[in-house]
# Entry
Amino acid sequence: MNKYFLMLAVVFFSVPVEAGVVELTIHSRANCINNESVTWDMRWNRTYATMSLHFKNIKNQIPTHDIFTGLEETWRSAAVHWNEALPGDGWKVIGLHWIKDPGTERLELIGQTEAIDCNIYDGWWDH
# Structure
């Protein structure tokens, strides 16, 4: 029993531990149970904001809804819609990722991500 628990713990926790360890990473996922856009950076002294635009149909030009984290001093700014979509549900996700300059109120757009599938790799280990 302990062997299986250890194996599951390693698999479950290995992705977050790797993401953004050395530098900032950004990514989005769609149709992967959750639709989400995430900004990762293990340096705790940064402030981020993440917006995730969710389109029910890949061809739609207007998002069905969006999720905005607001400003967060964190290592993981995640705009997530939990349990929104299963594989093949046809959602598209566009993520907008901002950083706040220290000592100012200025937000700088650091990147945009787009996904129409689970993108289990995209962005997670890029560092």
About this structure: The chain has one domain: 19-113. The longest helix spans residues 2-18. The longest strand covers residues 25-40. The CA atoms of residues 51 and 68 lie 4 Å apart.
